[in-house]
Design a protein that fits this description.
Layout (H helix, E strand, L loop, with lengths): L1 H6 L1 H23 L10 H10 L1 H35 L1 H5 L1 H9 L3 H12 L4 H24 L3 H9 L4 H39 L4 H10 L3 H29 L4 H4 L7 H17 L1
Helix pairs in contact: 3-12, 4-8, 4-10, 7-8, 7-10, 8-10, 10-11, 10-12, 10-14, 11-12
Length: 280
Protein backbone atom coordinates (compact mmCIF):
# COMPACT_ATOMS: atom_id res chain seq x y z
CA UNK A 1 0.00 0.00 0.00
CA UNK A 2 2.86 2.34 0.86
CA UNK A 3 4.56 1.55 -2.45
CA UNK A 4 1.37 2.29 -4.37
CA UNK A 5 1.03 5.65 -2.60
CA UNK A 6 4.64 6.52 -3.45
CA UNK A 7 4.20 5.55 -7.12
CA UNK A 8 1.14 7.78 -7.36
CA UNK A 9 3.12 10.79 -6.11
CA UNK A 10 3.81 12.05 -9.64
CA UNK A 11 0.13 11.77 -10.57
CA UNK A 12 -0.93 13.63 -7.42
CA UNK A 13 1.52 16.42 -8.17
CA UNK A 14 0.26 16.71 -11.78
CA UNK A 15 -3.36 16.83 -10.63
CA UNK A 16 -2.56 19.47 -8.00
CA UNK A 17 -0.77 21.59 -10.61
CA UNK A 18 -3.71 21.27 -12.99
CA UNK A 19 -6.14 22.23 -10.22
CA UNK A 20 -4.12 25.37 -9.44
CA UNK A 21 -4.07 26.32 -13.14
CA UNK A 22 -7.85 25.85 -13.43
CA UNK A 23 -8.50 27.96 -10.32
CA UNK A 24 -6.26 30.75 -11.62
CA UNK A 25 -7.90 30.49 -15.05
CA UNK A 26 -11.40 30.71 -13.57
CA UNK A 27 -10.46 33.62 -11.34
CA UNK A 28 -8.66 35.48 -14.13
CA UNK A 29 -11.57 35.19 -16.56
CA UNK A 30 -14.04 36.42 -13.95
CA UNK A 31 -11.77 39.19 -12.61
CA UNK A 32 -10.96 40.66 -16.03
CA UNK A 33 -14.45 39.97 -17.45
CA UNK A 34 -13.07 38.19 -20.51
CA UNK A 35 -15.73 37.60 -23.13
CA UNK A 36 -16.79 33.99 -23.55
CA UNK A 37 -16.05 33.69 -27.25
CA UNK A 38 -12.44 34.74 -26.57
CA UNK A 39 -11.68 32.59 -23.53
CA UNK A 40 -14.43 30.72 -21.65
CA UNK A 41 -14.03 29.89 -17.97
CA UNK A 42 -13.36 26.26 -16.97
CA UNK A 43 -16.81 26.11 -15.35
CA UNK A 44 -18.41 27.10 -18.67
CA UNK A 45 -16.35 24.49 -20.52
CA UNK A 46 -17.46 21.81 -18.06
CA UNK A 47 -21.08 22.92 -18.38
CA UNK A 48 -20.79 22.70 -22.17
CA UNK A 49 -19.53 19.12 -21.88
CA UNK A 50 -22.37 18.18 -19.52
CA UNK A 51 -24.88 19.61 -22.01
CA UNK A 52 -24.00 16.93 -24.60
CA UNK A 53 -21.76 14.26 -23.02
CA UNK A 54 -23.03 11.39 -25.14
CA UNK A 55 -22.29 13.13 -28.44
CA UNK A 56 -18.84 14.31 -27.36
CA UNK A 57 -17.84 10.91 -25.97
CA UNK A 58 -18.92 9.24 -29.22
CA UNK A 59 -16.74 11.64 -31.18
CA UNK A 60 -13.87 10.93 -28.77
CA UNK A 61 -14.33 7.20 -29.33
CA UNK A 62 -14.25 7.73 -33.09
CA UNK A 63 -10.99 9.68 -32.79
CA UNK A 64 -9.55 6.99 -30.52
CA UNK A 65 -10.40 4.20 -32.97
CA UNK A 66 -8.84 6.06 -35.89
CA UNK A 67 -5.73 6.91 -33.86
CA UNK A 68 -5.21 3.32 -32.73
CA UNK A 69 -5.72 1.97 -36.26
CA UNK A 70 -3.15 4.39 -37.66
CA UNK A 71 -0.75 3.74 -34.79
CA UNK A 72 -0.91 -0.05 -35.06
CA UNK A 73 -0.37 0.20 -38.81
CA UNK A 74 2.61 2.51 -38.22
CA UNK A 75 4.13 0.05 -35.71
CA UNK A 76 3.75 -2.94 -38.02
CA UNK A 77 5.09 -1.15 -41.09
CA UNK A 78 7.75 0.81 -39.20
CA UNK A 79 9.22 -2.17 -37.36
CA UNK A 80 9.05 -4.31 -40.51
CA UNK A 81 10.77 -1.64 -42.59
CA UNK A 82 13.41 -1.17 -39.89
CA UNK A 83 14.26 -4.89 -39.93
CA UNK A 84 14.58 -4.75 -43.72
CA UNK A 85 16.83 -1.67 -43.52
CA UNK A 86 19.12 -3.30 -40.94
CA UNK A 87 19.50 -6.53 -42.91
CA UNK A 88 19.50 -5.14 -46.47
CA UNK A 89 22.10 -2.70 -47.75
CA UNK A 90 19.83 -1.92 -50.71
CA UNK A 91 16.90 -0.93 -48.48
CA UNK A 92 19.27 1.02 -46.25
CA UNK A 93 20.31 3.14 -49.21
CA UNK A 94 16.86 3.49 -50.83
CA UNK A 95 13.95 3.06 -48.41
CA UNK A 96 15.70 4.83 -45.54
CA UNK A 97 16.51 7.86 -47.70
CA UNK A 98 12.97 7.84 -49.11
CA UNK A 99 11.45 7.90 -45.63
CA UNK A 100 13.70 10.80 -44.60
CA UNK A 101 12.66 12.75 -47.71
CA UNK A 102 8.98 11.93 -47.17
CA UNK A 103 9.16 13.07 -43.55
CA UNK A 104 10.34 16.50 -44.74
CA UNK A 105 7.09 17.00 -46.67
CA UNK A 106 4.35 18.72 -44.58
CA UNK A 107 1.72 16.07 -43.94
CA UNK A 108 -1.08 18.64 -44.13
CA UNK A 109 -0.12 19.15 -47.77
CA UNK A 110 -0.54 15.40 -48.41
CA UNK A 111 -3.91 15.13 -46.65
CA UNK A 112 -6.02 16.29 -49.64
CA UNK A 113 -4.33 13.64 -51.80
CA UNK A 114 -5.38 10.89 -49.40
CA UNK A 115 -8.96 12.17 -49.57
CA UNK A 116 -8.82 12.01 -53.38
CA UNK A 117 -7.30 8.52 -53.34
CA UNK A 118 -9.21 6.94 -50.43
CA UNK A 119 -12.45 8.92 -50.21
CA UNK A 120 -13.95 10.74 -47.24
CA UNK A 121 -14.41 7.85 -44.80
CA UNK A 122 -12.04 6.70 -42.08
CA UNK A 123 -9.42 5.37 -44.53
CA UNK A 124 -7.73 8.73 -45.31
CA UNK A 125 -7.66 9.65 -41.62
CA UNK A 126 -6.00 6.33 -40.73
CA UNK A 127 -3.51 6.78 -43.57
CA UNK A 128 -2.54 10.28 -42.42
CA UNK A 129 -2.18 9.13 -38.80
CA UNK A 130 0.03 6.24 -39.94
CA UNK A 131 2.17 8.47 -42.16
CA UNK A 132 2.88 10.95 -39.35
CA UNK A 133 3.51 8.28 -36.70
CA UNK A 134 5.71 5.88 -38.69
CA UNK A 135 8.89 7.97 -38.93
CA UNK A 136 9.90 8.11 -35.21
CA UNK A 137 9.05 4.41 -34.85
CA UNK A 138 11.19 3.53 -37.87
CA UNK A 139 14.16 5.67 -36.81
CA UNK A 140 14.23 4.45 -33.21
CA UNK A 141 13.78 0.81 -34.24
CA UNK A 142 16.67 1.03 -36.70
CA UNK A 143 18.80 2.62 -33.99
CA UNK A 144 17.89 -0.08 -31.48
CA UNK A 145 18.51 -2.97 -33.88
CA UNK A 146 21.91 -1.58 -34.85
CA UNK A 147 23.00 -0.72 -31.28
CA UNK A 148 24.23 -4.21 -30.44
CA UNK A 149 27.65 -4.97 -28.99
CA UNK A 150 29.72 -6.44 -31.88
CA UNK A 151 31.31 -8.93 -29.46
CA UNK A 152 27.88 -10.29 -28.66
CA UNK A 153 27.13 -10.80 -32.36
CA UNK A 154 30.49 -12.49 -32.84
CA UNK A 155 29.75 -14.85 -29.96
CA UNK A 156 26.36 -15.68 -31.52
CA UNK A 157 27.98 -16.42 -34.88
CA UNK A 158 30.63 -18.55 -33.16
CA UNK A 159 27.80 -20.58 -31.64
CA UNK A 160 26.31 -20.98 -35.16
CA UNK A 161 23.15 -19.01 -34.41
CA UNK A 162 21.01 -18.36 -37.49
CA UNK A 163 20.18 -14.82 -38.66
CA UNK A 164 16.56 -15.23 -37.57
CA UNK A 165 17.57 -16.32 -34.07
CA UNK A 166 20.05 -13.44 -33.81
CA UNK A 167 17.25 -11.08 -34.83
CA UNK A 168 14.48 -12.31 -32.53
CA UNK A 169 16.55 -13.45 -29.53
CA UNK A 170 19.37 -10.89 -29.49
CA UNK A 171 18.71 -7.82 -31.64
CA UNK A 172 14.98 -7.43 -31.01
CA UNK A 173 15.03 -7.80 -27.18
CA UNK A 174 17.90 -5.31 -26.98
CA UNK A 175 16.04 -2.92 -29.29
CA UNK A 176 12.81 -2.91 -27.26
CA UNK A 177 13.70 0.22 -25.21
CA UNK A 178 14.34 2.16 -28.42
CA UNK A 179 11.21 0.75 -30.04
CA UNK A 180 9.07 1.86 -27.10
CA UNK A 181 10.70 5.29 -27.19
CA UNK A 182 9.66 5.62 -30.84
CA UNK A 183 6.18 4.28 -30.09
CA UNK A 184 5.60 6.83 -27.32
CA UNK A 185 6.44 9.62 -29.75
CA UNK A 186 4.46 7.90 -32.51
CA UNK A 187 1.25 7.57 -30.49
CA UNK A 188 1.16 11.34 -29.98
CA UNK A 189 1.90 11.91 -33.66
CA UNK A 190 -0.85 9.46 -34.61
CA UNK A 191 -3.35 11.52 -32.61
CA UNK A 192 -2.15 14.68 -34.37
CA UNK A 193 -2.49 12.93 -37.73
CA UNK A 194 -6.03 11.84 -36.89
CA UNK A 195 -7.04 15.41 -36.11
CA UNK A 196 -5.48 16.61 -39.38
CA UNK A 197 -7.46 13.93 -41.21
CA UNK A 198 -10.66 14.94 -39.46
CA UNK A 199 -10.07 18.55 -40.44
CA UNK A 200 -9.69 17.57 -44.09
CA UNK A 201 -11.99 14.56 -44.48
CA UNK A 202 -14.53 15.64 -41.84
CA UNK A 203 -17.67 13.73 -40.93
CA UNK A 204 -16.88 12.69 -37.35
CA UNK A 205 -14.32 12.88 -34.57
CA UNK A 206 -13.07 15.61 -32.27
CA UNK A 207 -11.30 17.37 -35.14
CA UNK A 208 -14.63 17.65 -36.95
CA UNK A 209 -16.22 18.98 -33.73
CA UNK A 210 -13.54 21.67 -33.50
CA UNK A 211 -14.00 22.58 -37.16
CA UNK A 212 -17.79 22.96 -36.86
CA UNK A 213 -17.60 24.85 -33.54
CA UNK A 214 -14.97 27.21 -34.92
CA UNK A 215 -17.22 28.08 -37.84
CA UNK A 216 -19.95 29.24 -35.47
CA UNK A 217 -17.57 30.87 -32.92
CA UNK A 218 -18.63 28.29 -30.33
CA UNK A 219 -15.44 28.64 -28.30
CA UNK A 220 -16.59 26.56 -25.26
CA UNK A 221 -17.18 23.54 -27.50
CA UNK A 222 -13.73 24.02 -29.05
CA UNK A 223 -12.19 23.98 -25.58
CA UNK A 224 -14.19 20.90 -24.62
CA UNK A 225 -12.82 19.07 -27.66
CA UNK A 226 -9.30 20.25 -26.86
CA UNK A 227 -9.63 19.07 -23.25
CA UNK A 228 -10.84 15.65 -24.42
CA UNK A 229 -7.89 15.47 -26.82
CA UNK A 230 -5.48 16.25 -23.97
CA UNK A 231 -7.03 13.54 -21.79
CA UNK A 232 -6.96 11.06 -24.66
CA UNK A 233 -3.30 11.81 -25.40
CA UNK A 234 -2.29 11.34 -21.77
CA UNK A 235 -4.21 8.04 -21.51
CA UNK A 236 -2.59 6.66 -24.67
CA UNK A 237 0.91 7.72 -23.58
CA UNK A 238 0.51 6.36 -20.06
CA UNK A 239 -0.91 3.13 -21.45
CA UNK A 240 2.25 2.59 -23.46
CA UNK A 241 4.36 3.40 -20.41
CA UNK A 242 2.52 0.71 -18.41
CA UNK A 243 3.10 -1.86 -21.16
CA UNK A 244 6.77 -0.86 -21.33
CA UNK A 245 7.12 -1.17 -17.58
CA UNK A 246 5.77 -4.72 -17.64
CA UNK A 247 7.78 -5.85 -20.67
CA UNK A 248 11.07 -4.17 -19.73
CA UNK A 249 11.43 -4.44 -15.94
CA UNK A 250 15.16 -5.09 -16.42
CA UNK A 251 15.83 -1.75 -18.12
CA UNK A 252 17.47 1.02 -16.08
CA UNK A 253 14.70 3.50 -16.88
CA UNK A 254 12.16 1.18 -15.23
CA UNK A 255 14.20 0.43 -12.13
CA UNK A 256 14.10 4.06 -11.08
CA UNK A 257 17.81 4.22 -10.28
CA UNK A 258 20.95 5.25 -12.17
CA UNK A 259 22.80 2.89 -14.46
CA UNK A 260 25.43 0.84 -12.69
CA UNK A 261 29.00 2.11 -12.63
CA UNK A 262 30.14 -1.02 -14.48
CA UNK A 263 27.79 -1.17 -17.49
CA UNK A 264 29.78 -3.90 -19.20
CA UNK A 265 29.20 -6.31 -16.30
CA UNK A 266 25.48 -5.53 -16.18
CA UNK A 267 25.24 -5.88 -19.94
CA UNK A 268 27.00 -9.25 -19.90
CA UNK A 269 24.66 -10.48 -17.17
CA UNK A 270 21.64 -9.53 -19.29
CA UNK A 271 23.08 -10.87 -22.54
CA UNK A 272 24.05 -14.36 -21.38
CA UNK A 273 20.49 -15.80 -21.43
CA UNK A 274 19.94 -14.22 -24.85
CA UNK A 275 23.06 -15.93 -26.21
CA UNK A 276 21.94 -19.24 -24.76
CA UNK A 277 18.56 -18.87 -26.46
CA UNK A 278 20.21 -17.97 -29.77
CA UNK A 279 22.44 -21.04 -29.57
CA UNK A 280 19.36 -23.27 -29.28
Amino acid sequence: MKGLWKRAEESRLAMLTMLVILVLWEGGVRWFAVREFLLPAPSKIFAEFMAQPGFLLMQTLDTLQTTMAGFVLAVVLGVGAAIGIVYSRFLDRTLYSLMVALNAVPKVALAPLFVIWLGTGSAPKIAIAMLIAIFPILIDTVLGLKSIDPEMLNMARANQASRSKVLWKIRFPNALPSIFAGMKVGISFALVGTIVGEFVAGGSGLGYVILVAQGSFDTPTVFVALALLCILGVILFKGLEIVEEHLLPWHASQRGKPIAESPSAAQQEKQMPLLAEAKR
